[in-house]
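Listing S7. Sequence submitted for prediction.
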Amino acid sequence: MSRADIIYRVLSGTASSEEKEEVERWVALSKSNREEYEDLRLLYQFSKVNPETPGDSRLPERFERIRCAATARLARKARTRQAYRLAGALACFGLAAFLWSHVLINTQPASLQFRDEALRHVIPVVERRFGVEVHVDEDALKSCRFTGTFYRVDTPDNIIHSISRAVKANMVVIGPGKYRLFGGDC
């Protein structure tokens, strides 16, 4: 017995419980199976001809109902496809925005590295990189030599604190993004 015969038996109400389960499993396998079943169900529902009246005058009306149902189903499918395309486009846009912002945020090199450089050269690099201000009170402190490497995870507070400890200076946070180094014994 073909699948179409089994589906016809299910639709006509003459199928066994095993046949009903087989059709349900088949319908659940894929979207195209569900669509095919829906098409067959619509055809069965709207085109049944009464065998007692061979020239059924309502046949054109039934076919018109089939056409309307098929048209409505196609419209639903088109709306669903459009919704999927829109969701896909939004997902792509979101991913692109995320990647773009991630690249912009992480355009800085992974680390800052200084090798035996005077603070007068180190401090401007840190200020530019992190958008902070560091005031060094004594000229002698600006001549202190510094060696160190800072990775992307370091914050300006940690970096400036490390520099101040290395040159044995005191650090004071003046305000958001503003620091003062004084004293020191390099």
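Caption to Listing S7: primary sequence and predicted structure tokens for the chain studied. The two ends are 95 Å apart (CA to CA). The domain at 111-183 is CATH 3.55.50.30 (Phage tail protein beta-alpha-beta fold).
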